[in-house]
Design goal:
Layout (H helix, E strand, L loop, with lengths): L7 E5 L8 E8 L9 E2 L3 H9 L2 E7 L19 H8 L2 H28 L6 H7 L10 H13 L1 H20 L4 H13 L9 H4 L7 H8 L1 H10 L6 H9 L20 H16 L10 H10 L7 H11 L7 E4 L3 E7 L9 E7 L4 E9 L8 E4 L9 H6 L1
Antiparallel strand pairs: 1-4, 2-3, 2-4, 5-6, 5-9, 6-7, 7-8
Helix pairs in contact: 2-5, 3-6, 5-6, 6-7, 6-12, 7-11, 10-11, 11-12, 12-13
The protein binds fe (ii) ion (FE2).
């Protein structure tokens, strides 16, 4: 394991100075690679890197030597949040931590509110499970420091990170994993994308499709996550594994190490699912998230290649799609009320047919087990009010 004292920082080329110990190139327009890591001893070395199109490099601060403090970069250091947090002491540190903690709390509330606005899923048990989870972070200074870096980079990144952490912990709980593991899942999920603090903003926030070159840089965030967390004290094996492998796939077509099958632990497999689920359902400035059930369908289409079949089914089951009492619209334009959940096939519950939208009339009330009617499929959940239907009547029957 790398020495815990390693302090990798991302430095823009214009801020690269004599004495800095360069370990790798983070962003460039050319194809230069650092053959050997080492200290910058002459200004010419920086000029040469610049000429070759190098834009951002990773510097090991702990191995850098500065003649005087004034040579240290002040404003152009990308992950300056870390030094800011480190330099704070006493009261101000407590205040900064409190602020961050409060923000995490309000993001947690926002997460559940958003879930509630989509198609009905059982959020109550999730809320209960999340109670105290975020609180447990208060004593995790290492994790909080990392979260502060994420926050400094990008608010959405912090939001996504927290969502993934909470969902992952909840998923672990539904699989009867113990409290200590749930906590590691929370923190592992929270920190899995920390490497993105090194990804240039124009790539991280690009609304359209990334070019091949940009995609290469984007994919590097996993390696950065691994390096940052490996050098951080208090990061467990589970947390490191989640961060390092969350873009690997079961079929070996993922990155960065093309791991496959048995090489992916169940924690990694869980993280793959949850990370993808949150990316699909989250609202971004340029796109609104898709409803949970649409996301589940996409996840299901990746079963066997990208995702673990058993875990996908367990995830969908633990999210509790279509709770009893939900009014659903079928592709055949009929409406039905869910009367019994299907534990094994959560998207195919038993419903009671009540209404035909095509003819705008009530239908003969009839029970249908959707797992046995291959020609009927749920399109989505709908509001009873939109159709002037009182569900009490049908549920009581
Ligand atoms: Fe990622």
């Amino acid at each position: 394991m790398t020495s815990p004292k390693t302090d990798i920082r991302t430095i823009e080329i214009d801020a690269l100075k004599k004495g800095m110990y360069v370990v790798s190139i983070t962003s460039q327009s050319g194809k230069t690679s650092v053959a050997q890591s080492g200290r910058i001893t002459q200004a010419e070395q920086v000029k040469l890197l610049k000429r070759k199109g190098v834009k951002v490099v990773s510097v090991d601060w702990s191995r850098s030597v500065f003649e005087d403090d004034s040579s240290q970069p002040k404003t152009t250091e990308i992950n300056s949040a870390s030094s800011k947090v480190k330099k704070l002491s006493g009261e101000s540190e407590k205040l900064a931590a409190k602020k961050l903690f409060n923000e995490a709390k309000s993001l947690q509330t926002k997460f559940f509110r958003q879930l509630q606005q989509g198609e009905p899923i059982d959020i109550e048990p999730m809320e209960r499970a999340a109670e105290g989870l975020i609180d447990s972070l208060e004593n995790q200074s290492g994790a909080m420091l990392c979260l502060a870096k994420i926050r400094a980079k990008d608010k959405y990144l912090m939001e996504h990170s927290l969502n993934v952490g909470m969902l992952l912990a909840y998923f672990g709980r539904s699989l009867d994993m113990n409290k200590a593991v749930q906590k590691q899942l929370l923190m592992g999920g929270m920190l899995h994308d920390i490497g993105k603090i090194n990804t240039p903003d124009e790539i991280l926030h690009k609304p359209g499709k990334l070019t091949d070159d940009e995609f290469v840089i984007m994919r590097e965030h996993v390696v950065h996550s691994h390096n940052i967390l490996k050098a951080q004290e208090g990061i467990s094996k589970i947390m490191l594994e989640i961060a390092s492998n969350h873009h690997e796939r079961l079929d070996g077509l993922g990155y960065p190490n093309k791991l496959k099958g048995e090489q992916l632990s169940s924690y990694t497999r869980m993280a793959n699912i949850v990370d993808c689920y949150d990316a699909l359902t989250a609202d971004r400035v340029y796109k609104s998230g898709m409803p949970p059930t649409a996301a589940f369908r996409i996840l299901l289409s990746g079963v066997g290649t990208q995702f673990d079949k058993v875990l996908i089914e367990k995830f969908i089951r633990c999210m509790g799609v279509y709770p009893v009492g939900t009014l659903v619209k079928l592709k055949s334009k009929k409406l039905g009320v869910v009367v019994e959940r299907n534990e094994l096939k959560p998207l195919q519950p038993i419903i009671k047919l009540v209404f035909n939208v095509a003819t705008n009339t009530h239908t003969e009330v009839k029970l249908i087990d959707l797992s046995k009617y291959s020609h009927e499929e749920i399109e989505g959940a709908v509001s009873p009010r939109d159709y002037g239907i009182s569900l009490d009547r049908f549920l009581a029957e």
